[in-house]
Specification:
Blueprint lengths: L22 E4 L9 E5 L5 E3 L10 E3 L2 E2 L23 H5 E5 L2 H9 L9 E3 L9 H5 L2 H10 L4 E5 L8 H10 L2 E6 L5 H7 L6 H13 L4 E8 L7 H13 L5 E5 L6 H12 L4 H7 L8 H17 L34
Helix pairs in contact: 2-4, 4-5, 8-11
Length: 343
């Protein structure tokens, strides 16, 4: 593993953690079987998003690297290659844990140089993945943000967020807090194959209901809409209807995008499970990581029409203050367009 590029040495102050700061653990319990945790003490936790990314936020906090949700399409897979870790199974099972994230965040928020800007979480890997049940980093992170009245947002597929509901309510009393849950489809068969480590779509929508019933506005990022597998009109209708019934304050569709790292892993999965679709995907994504603009707009229009029909979104309940990935035309984003800071 290429830790030396990121540890103390010739890099001097730019090093991200000390050479003796990595502790590797395996946990022999059913929940974590097959998963290896690499515990590190990070030197910084608030990461600036590259200006070229055009993301609607400037700062992120990522307490984990790698994700046991094992979503076959996850765009963050490429980041594992920077540690010489595999972007397929390795991304799903080799989890980097920044064990000092809460204390480090509190220190950075208290710095005179910090201006109180919005911080986005869950935009790279999920901060409420299974590892969070073991390491419990998010309560301390939310407490630090609450105590500094710092605005933040969370995007997650993890129902574990409900554990921190009291803290979220406290934070929302003093700062702008946006919560979004990712639910791209409600088809249980599709979920089991493309998102095998996540709570079911029904469980995620139940979490949306619990959040909204507790007074925490929660939107749904309908992502990803998967071409030829999850984009049929009846599938879109079923998903938007379920989102509306959950009490979500908004629904925002995002078509599947396949960046390097994710693209190869998804292609292998597609060839195994749906070989008849391989040629269609090659044509659809021939221009780059993103589906053609006409297709993205078609899906967006369909979802917006359904949202209006079911009384959600513009003209319905007030939209949640969520941080979402903007729609991009094919090839519009360079490789540096994603927040890629490792630790």
């Amino acid at each position: 593993m290429r830790w030396e590029n990121l540890t103390e040495g010739p890099a001097g102050p730019a090093a991200l953690f000390g050479a003796d700061a990595v502790v590797t653990r395996t946990v022999d319990t059913p929940e974590f079987r097959g998963i290896t945790f690499h515990e590190v003490r990070a030197r910084s936790i608030v990461n600036r998003v590259p200006g070229a990314s055009r993301m609607p936020f400037e700062w992120t906090v990522n307490p984990y690297r790698g994700c046991s949700h094992a979503c076959v399409y996850c765009f963050a897979r490429k980041t594992h290659s920077y540690l010489d870790l595999d972007t397929g199974i390795g991304f799903d099972s080799q989890i980097v844990v920044k064990t000092n994230a809460p204390e480090l965040l509190r220190r950075e928020l208290g710095s005179r140089r910090w201006t109180g800007a919005h911080i986005a979480m869950g935009t790279n890997v999920d901060c409420y993945q299974r590892a969070e049940g073991r390491y419990r980093l998010m309560p301390g992170i939310i407490e630090a943000l609450r105590d500094h009245a710092n605005p933040f947002s969370i995007l997650t597929k993890g129902t574990l967020i409900l554990r921190d509901l009291p803290l979220l309510r406290q934070a929302a009393e003093v700062a702008d807090v946006g919560i979004s849950v990712s639910v791209g489809f409600t088809d249980p068969g599709l979920w089991r194959t493309v998102e095998p480590g996540t709570p079911s779509p029904a469980a995620r929508l139940a979490a949306v209901r619990a959040l909204t019933d507790a007074g925490i506005e929660c939107g749904v990022l309908m992502a990803p809409v998967i071409p030829f597998l999850g984009d049929a009109p009846e599938q879109l209708r079923d998903t938007v209807r379920a989102v509306a019934e959950s009490g979500a304050t908004s629904v925002t569709p995002l078509v599947l995008h396949l960046r390097p790292g994710a693209r190869e892993w998804f292609a292998a999965w597609l060839g195994e499970h749906h070989p008849h679709l391989v040629a269609r995907y090659e044509r659809m994504y021939a221009g780059g990581s993103y589906a053609p603009t006409w297709y993205q707009r078609q899906i967006t229009r369909q979802v917006h029409e359904l949202a209006a029909e079911f009384g959600i979104g513009p003209g319905g309940r007030r939209a949640a203050r969520a941080v979402l990935v903007p729609e991009r035309p094919a090839g519009a984003v360079a490789a540096g367009g994603t927040q890629l800071s490792l630790l």
